[in-house]
Amino acid sequence: MNDKLSQLYQQVLLDHNKTPRNYRVLDPADFEALGHNPLCGDKYKIFMNIDENNIVTDVTFIGDGCAISKASASMMTTFVKGKHIDEIEKLFHQFHDMAQGKLDPENDPNDLGRLKIFYGVRNLPARVKCATLCWHTLHAALKGKEKVTTE
Amino acid sequence: MADSSVSIKSSAALEAAGTIDIERCRDDFPVLRREVHGKPLAFLDNAASSQMPEPVMRAYTEYHSRYHANVHRGVHLLSQEATEAMEGARETLRGLINARSSKEVIFTSGATDAINLVMQSWGRTNVGEGDEILISTMEHHSNIVPWRMLCDEKGAVLKVIPVSDDGVLDMKAFADMLTDRTRLVGIVHVSNTLGTINPVAEITRIAHQHGVPVLVDGAQAVSHMKVDVQQIDCDFFVTSGHKMYGPTGIGILYGKQELLEKMPPWRGGGDMILSVSFDEVLYNELPYKFEAGTPNISGAIGMGKAAEYIMSVGYNAIHKKEQELLRYATEQLQTIEGLRIIGTAPEKSSVVSFVIDGVHPHDIGTVLDLEGVAVRTGHHCTQPLMDRLGIVATTRASMAMYNRREEIDQLVAGLRKTIEMFR
């Protein structure tokens, strides 16, 4: 297979697209936000609960969009569960920088772990927003904004 | 103009003789020889912007390398040559769409700009509270937003002609929707998303029975079919250079002279005046009244050359070739399991939009790109149409006269690969 193609659409990404984790409504939720990319119609809603120590106890999502946006949302929910909201803030910036090619997850210090499979989008400017949409939405939820758009 | 001549001459020689063999025209488009991501480029995004042939580029650079100067002003030779070239382009474009006079051909920055000119000048003068503007569900945003803006400003009503599931305009509904408050019908000639060719002459005839003028958005028409504005009898017709093998940033507004004469200028500035004092301005005559400021001179010259190029190939040859490509693409795409074509009107230009079960158009677009195939994915600036059809996005392959069957094969192979990956 084409190198760029297999780098971008890695098996784990395709698997999360096909079987998204934490794909459900969380009710009641402490935080929720809607993310929308009007350019491609991607639309996700993210729900999150935290405990008294600001640790994420549950995070879920619903919505539809391309494989990259859906897999990114699915992997994000599995990754941030159990983390402190300050860590999420840090991860948001790291993920964002990685998607834009400003952070090399192999060589620069980071906490992205398995999320680094999204490094492939840096070469495809049109797809960067697909990978970062859920992160923007989660970030907005934490900041108390109800709606975010990546356009 | 001969359509397709069997000849061993080079296309440049044929062009000099006034005809270009359509089978050879591909050689005139240098970009089609490039590779992307290590694969030969299959450019199937012509409805977004078509490629430019060398004669257009030469005309464009010749202006800049030999006679770059302002128009309608200088007494020096370069300015005279620039003026002649630009007015020559206007005359060529007049001929292309068969306007009565070159006074009816106004240069704009594109089709969008031309629609905005009509909205700002004609619309703001003639549309008032409670009046109605009638457009269709399959309009591009460029023929929706200006009218929405006008309706909001004036308290007028935007009414929308429905389309059927297969993408055909509901002509019965259209006739019923014309009222004594209808001030304008705005209709797309060829849908950029569906390829549907609308019966614009018939629409105009019916609208005129009610005394309603018609604006035809011809951005997707001129590269594919002979447009005769007198035969259509529309009141306004707009199109863009870059969708007919010309440069970006240039287009034309055609308007019937008697309407244009009555319309106030929209933009003020140099070139659109006869005399200026601080108390009074005398406006220039048509078409200059609507062309304030130094125009896109090289763009106009390039668009004129693109029109000449199209006429040298000939609309009969273009139609035949593109319809063959459309038939082949439709046939081949239908062999893919889970693929549904969006837009199956009986009269179509060479555009095929489709969706595939379980694969998002943006993923399709990315895989195809990496396979060398350029297509458009998304809502194609027709969000209300997408809503009507109950989808968020499609993948669209749009063919031009220089495309080949091999490129469609490349598309189909890319799609099979995509499906294999995602299922």
Overview of the structural elements:
The complex is a heterodimer of chains A (151) and B (423). Chain A has 151 residues and is of the alpha+beta class. Chain A is 40% helix and 19% strand. Chain A has helices at residues 3-8, 11-18, 67-80, 85-99, 125-142; strands at residues 31-37, 42-50, 56-64, 147-149. Chain A has a 4-stranded mixed β-sheet with strand order 3-2-1-4, with helices on one face. In chain A, a hairpin with a 4-residue loop joins strand 1 and strand 2. In chain B, helix 2 packs antiparallel against helix 10 (297-313), helix 4 (111-126) runs parallel beside helix 5 (145-154) and helix 11 (315-333) packs parallel to helix 14. The longest helix of chain B has 21 residues, at 77-97. Chain B folds into 2 domains: 17-46 and 314-422, Alpha-Beta Complex (Aspartate Aminotransferase, domain 1); 58-311, Type I PLP-dependent aspartate aminotransferase-like (Major domain) (Aspartate Aminotransferase, domain 2, 3-Layer(aba) Sandwich). Chain B has 14 helices and 17 strands. Classes of the chains: A alpha+beta (151), B alpha/beta (423). The interface between A and B is medium-sized, with 20 and 19 residues.
Task: Break the fold down into its secondary structure elements and pairings.
The complex is a heterodimer of chains A (151) and B (423).
Chain A: H1 3-8, H2 11-18, E1 31-37, E2 42-50, E3 56-64, H3 67-80, H4 85-99, H5 125-142, E4 147-149
Parallel strand pairs in A: 1-4
Antiparallel strand pairs in A: 1-2, 2-3
Chain B: H1 11-16, E1 35-36, E2 39-40, E3 42-43, H2 54-66, H3 77-97, E4 105-108, H4 111-126, E5 132-136, H5 145-154, E6 157-161, H6 171-177, E7 182-188, H7 200-209, E8 214-217, H8 229-232, E9 236-240, E10 251-255, H9 257-262, E11 273-276, E12 281-283, H10 297-313, H11 315-333, E13 339-342, E14 351-356, H12 361-370, E15 373-374, E16 376-378, H13 383-389, E17 394-398, H14 405-422
Parallel strand pairs in B: 3-15, 5-6, 5-7, 7-8, 8-9
Antiparallel strand pairs in B: 1-2, 4-10, 9-10, 11-12, 13-14, 14-17, 16-17
